[in-house]
Amino acid sequence: MSSKAIRFYETGGPEVLKFETVEVGEPGPGQVRVRHTGIAVNFIDIYFRTGRYPAPLPNGLGSDAVGVVEAVGPDVSFLAVGDRVGYMFGPLGAYSERRVMPAEVLIKIPDGIDDETASTIIMKGLTAQYLFRQVFPLKGGETILYHAAAGGVGLIACQWARALGVTMIGTVGSDEKAEIAKAHGCTHVINYKTENFVERVKEITGGKGVPVVYDSVGKDTLAGSLDCLQKRGTLVSNGTSSGPVVIDTMQLAIKGSIWVTRPAMVDYALPRPNMLKMADELFDLVLAGKIVSKPQQVFSLADAADAHRALESRQTVGATVLKP
Predict the structure, then answer these.
(1) Dihedrals φ, ψ of 299, to 5°?
(2) CATH superfamily, region 2-120+274-323
(3) pLDDT score recorded for residue 140
(4) How far is the C-alpha of 174 from the C-alpha of 42, rounded, in Å?
(5) Nearest alpha carbon to residue 38 among 67, 61, 2, 62
(6) Which of 67, 233, 284, 307 has its CA 20 to 30 A from that of 141?
(7) What is the pLDDT of residue 219?
(8) List of the chain residues with pLDDT < 50
(9) What pLDDT, on a 0 to 100 scale, did the predictor assign at position 295?
(10) How high is the pLDDT of residue 220?
(11) What would the CATH number be for the domain defined by 140-262?
């Protein structure tokens, strides 16, 4: 069976992405074939495309999509043809119309959640879950700093913080993004282009700082993030969109015995029962109306390069999705 897919043969800019016809076979033992209905675009895709994260070439791209099970291989008892599923693990290649996948990485989508919503919450929603509920478990009542509050994970994080009773201070890059983050539940929003976020955090917290900073920006915000922390506070470095982070450990002592972690989703979501438990918590919040998520930018699969250009330019808000 033939299918359209994005492939890349060398690392580089968006122009290395090629829209091609590929062959998709029948699922083998422990596998299913999925026809995609929505494919999420994440910053990690850019890391693979540029070579920051190594991958064998040539290769497909993308690891986060939703779709419908078309065929089920032997030894798969927990999925059936017609099931709606999503995934965030497995081999690269989500930028495609259909593909064969290991069944063990697939998550069934509840009937009350449509494909449009599901396409924005698998990796992004589960990222918010492990950051807020596992890496630095929030119980309610805390005041936190979250960078990129109007991004794909950020808008879910705003709503999750509100649901937990957490005061979220979020940074954004424009007044328009500030309004969007605030509308999604961010308590205090700082436009880092017009305000000093360290001074504002100290002002909001009465000079105390915050117990945790979630920083997906990296190089540009590192120094300021450390300055926002209380003594023995925690920097969760969960991304490097502005460049890699280099930390002088002596500065961690000088700034108050700061803890730093660079978490990876795989270490929190696997084995499979962990992932399903995380998904249940996320889906419950979505079904209860406490998290609402829809694609803010939609591109055709053939225009994946344009989607990457938009994301890299920091002009996007919320989730970006490709439609096969």
Answers:
(1) -125, 155
(2) Medium-chain alcohol dehydrogenases, catalytic domain (3.90.180.10)
(3) 96
(4) 21
(5) 67
(6) 284
(7) 86
(8) none
(9) 95
(10) 86
(11) 3.40.50.720
